[in-house]
Amino acid sequence: MNNTSPSGHPAAPSVSPVAFARRLRLFSLIDRHLMKEMAFSFALGLGIFTFVLLMNQMIRLMDLIINKGIGVGIVLRLFLYLLPFSLTVTIPMSVMLAILATYGRLSSDGEAIALKTNGVSLYRLMVPGLLVGVATTLVTLWITISVQPRSTRASTTLIHRLYQTKAIMALQEGVFNTGYPGLIVYVDRLEERSASLAGILIIDRRNPADQRVVIAQEGKMPGDDAGRGLRTAIQLSRGHIHLTSAENPGRYRNLKFETYELQVPAGGRLAETLERPKKGREMNLAELRAQIERLRKEGGNVPPLEVEWNKKFALPIACLILSVLGSPIGLRVKRASRGISLAFSVALTVFYYVLLAAGESLGSRGRIDPALGIWFPNILLGLVAIGLVLAEGREALLPAGLRSAARDLAIFLPRGVSQRKTSQKTRQP
Questions:
Q1: Residue 86 counted as domain residue
Q2: Alpha-helix runs per DSSP H in 166-266
Q3: Are 33 and 150 within one domain?
Q4: Residues in CB range of 372: below 8 A, 6 or more apart
C-alpha cells in the first residue's frame, strides 16, 4: 500500500484508536507527565495562597519578637499551630489552580485534541486530576479531623500562658485595658521590651467593700517568666493610692508610696489553663459527637457544633469537587496560562468560601439546617461540575461510527427539508 498523502508527501503512520487507548494504562507516561505538572502548580499555589492568608498573622508574630521580646522558638511554634487551619482553606484553592493550569496548557498546546483524535476520551484525560483530587481530599480530611483540633487547642493554650508570663502583652497605650479580672488599667506610655510603664492609672474593684484608685508615675510588669506560678505582678513606683469604702462613703484615704506591688491572682481571661472547656474547633469527632448529644438532652445551643462537625467533611470533599470542575473548564480555556488560572481559581474559590461563610453564619444561628448551610456550596459546584463534564464529553458517550452517522444525519436532515420545500413551491401553479 502506498503510504502517501494526497499531496504526495509521506503520511504519518496511523495508530488505531482502540490500540492506543488500550496502551494508555493507568499511571502511563501521559498520566505521570500531567501529575508532575499538577504537582508543580499545586506547590506554587499552596505557597502563594498560604503566604497571603497568613500575612497578617506573620506581621503579628514578628511584632512579638521585635517589640514584646518573645523568643523565636515560641513564635515558630505559634506559626506551626496556625498552619493547619490555613491549609484547610488553601489546599482546595491550590487544587483548582493545578487542574486549571495543567488542562488549560494541554488544550492551548493542542495536545488535548491530539489525544482525543487517538481515542482518548475526556473521562480518561480527567483521571490524573481525579487522582490529585482524591489525594488532597484524604490529606485535608486528616488535617481537619486529627491535626487541626490539636493545633488549635495548643495555640490557644500557648497564648494564654504567654499572657500569664508576659502580662504586658495584654496592655495597649492610651486605652482603658479590661483584660485583668476586676481591674481597669490605663497606661500613658509603654515600653514592651523592657516591660516598663509610665503614667499609670489603675481602678481596682476586686474588693466590693474597698475600692482603690492607684496612680503611679512609673511601673514594671515582670510577670512570672520562670513559669512557677499563675500570677502577674505590677510593680509601681512613686504614686498614690486613693481608698474609698462602700460601707462608709464619707471615709476617704490617700496613701503615698515609693514602691507598690499590685498582685493579679490566677483567674479570669488571662489565666485560662488546660482545665478550661474546649471550644468547637478544638474538639475531635468523638468529642463533638458527645457534646452535641449532651446539649440536645439539655436543650443547649447545638447548631454551632453541628456546623463544626459538617465542616470537617465538607472542606475535604471540596478538593474532589474542584478537581472535577477544573478539568472541563481548563480544556475550554484555550489560553490558560498560570496567571489566568491563578485569577480564575481565586475567583472561584472566593465564591465558594463566601457561600460557605454565609451558610456557616446562618447555620450557627439556627436560621437554616447546619448541614444544608455547610454542604450547599459543595452541592452547587458539584452539579455545575457534572453538567460541564457531560457537556464537554458528550461525544465520548457514543462510538466513533455512531458519532459520524449522527453528524451526517444532522447535515442531511436540513438539506432534505429544504429540498422538499423547494419542490412543493415549484409544483404550485
A1: yes
A2: none
A3: yes
A4: 359, 363
pLDDT in tens, 246-304: 777 777 888 888 888 887 654 444 444 445 567 778 888 888 888 889 888 888 888 99
Together in a domain, 158 and 98: yes
Q: The domain containing residue 226 runs over which residues? A: 182-266
- The verdict on 96 and 244 lying in the same domain is no
Number of domains in the chain: 2
Whether residue 156 sits in one domain with residue 56 = yes
Q: Which helix (H) or strand (E) holds 213?
A: strand 210-220
pLDDT in tens, 17-46: 444 444 456 667 788 888 898 999 899 989
**Alpha-carbon gap, residue 46 to 76, rounded angstroms:** 19
- The C-alpha cell that represents 178 in the structure block: 479590661
Q: Residue holding cell 494526497?
A: 6
Judge whether 278 lies within some domain: no
User: Which strand (E) or helix (H) includes residue 153?
Assistant: helix 148-165
pTM value is: 0.67
Residue 341 to residue 68: CA distance in whole angstroms = 41
Dig out the grid coordinates for 14 from the structure. 496511523
In 64-96, which positions are buried (b, 16+ CB within 10 angstroms) versus exposed (e)? beeeeebeeebbeebeebbbbbbbbbbbbbbbb
CA 328 to mean position of chain CA atoms: 24
Could you tell me if 140 and 191 lie in one domain? no
Long-range contacts of 204-211 (CB under 8 A, 24+ apart): 204/262, 206/181, 206/182, 208/246, 209/245, 209/246, 209/247, 210/243, 210/244, 210/245, 210/246, 211/243, 211/244, 211/246
Label residue 126 exposed, middle or buried (CB < 10 Å: 0-12, 13-18, 19+).
buried
How many Å apart are CA 36 and CA 183, to the nearest integer?
59
Find how far residue 135's CA is from the centre of its chain.
Answer: 17
